[in-house]
């Protein structure tokens, strides 16, 4: 069973997780994540020396920390072999199949097609602009339903 308190109610809470990605082709990366994946632009800044940044809203953020055995298991389930670098970015979407099609049409390389996982989500792997290895996933069950699955709990409940 998980308990989620709003950050405003937790003392010393982190207010936002921001992943900063250096993209050689800035325009293509912004277009891919903003226009194709659908992350709304929250802000953008530039300076006279050509420096530019776009801050895209990715909804709620979590930091998923996995030990090497878990990382290996996820790669095996989603792809069939170890392919992910140390960092992988995952985006929850409403329709993993449609999103995978849109992203590959816009230049992402499909590493593995949408696959149903043991934790009841539909996950696809892609190599995307900005050098990111990404997962798009669609939850097929509610959190309450997933919490009843074998192996699904919080560390404090184990």
Could you explain how this protein is built, in words?
By secondary structure, this protein is an alpha+beta fold. 23% of the residues lie in helices and 25% in strands. It contains 4 helices and 6 strands; from the N terminus they run H-E-E-H-E-H-E-E-E-H. It has helices at residues 26-36, 68-78, 96-105, 143-147, and strands at 41-46, 52-56, 89-92, 109-116, 121-128, 132-139. Strands 3-6-5-4 form a 4-stranded mixed beta sheet, with helices on one face. It has a two-stranded antiparallel ribbon with strand order 1-2. Strand 5 (121-128) and strand 6 form a beta hairpin. It is globular.
Relative strand content: 15-25%
The run of helices and strands is: HEEHEHEEEH
Number of helices: 4
Q: pLDDT under 50 segments (min length 5)? A: none
Q: Helix- and strand-based class? A: alpha+beta
How helical, in percent, are the residues?
10-25%
Largest sheet: 4 strands, mixed
What multimeric state do the chains show? single chain
How large, in whole angstroms, is the Cα Rg?
17 Å
Shape: globular
Cα separation of the termini: 10 Å
Mean pLDDT: 88
Side-by-side strand order of the widest sheet:
3-6-5-4
Query: What is the β-strand count?
Result: 6
């Amino acid at each position: 069973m998980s308990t989620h308190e709003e950050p405003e109610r937790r003392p010393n809470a982190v207010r936002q997780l921001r992943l900063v990605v250096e993209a050689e082709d800035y325009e293509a990366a912004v277009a891919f994540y903003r226009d194709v994946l659908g992350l709304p632009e929250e802000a953008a800044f530039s300076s006279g020396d050509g420096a530019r940044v776009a801050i895209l809203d990715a909804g709620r953020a979590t930091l998923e920390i996995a030990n090497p055995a878990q990382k290996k298991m996820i790669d095996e389930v989603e792809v069939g072999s170890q392919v992910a670098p140390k960092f992988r970015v995952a985006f929850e979407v409403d329709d993993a199949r449609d999103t995978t099609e849109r992203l590959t049409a816009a230049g992402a390389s499909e590493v593995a097609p949408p696959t149903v996982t043991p934790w009841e989500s539909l996950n696809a792997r892609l190599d995307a602009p900005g050098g990111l290895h990404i997962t798009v996933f669609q939850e097929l069950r509610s959190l309450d339903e997933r919490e009843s699955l074998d192996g699904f709990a919080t560390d404090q409940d184990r």
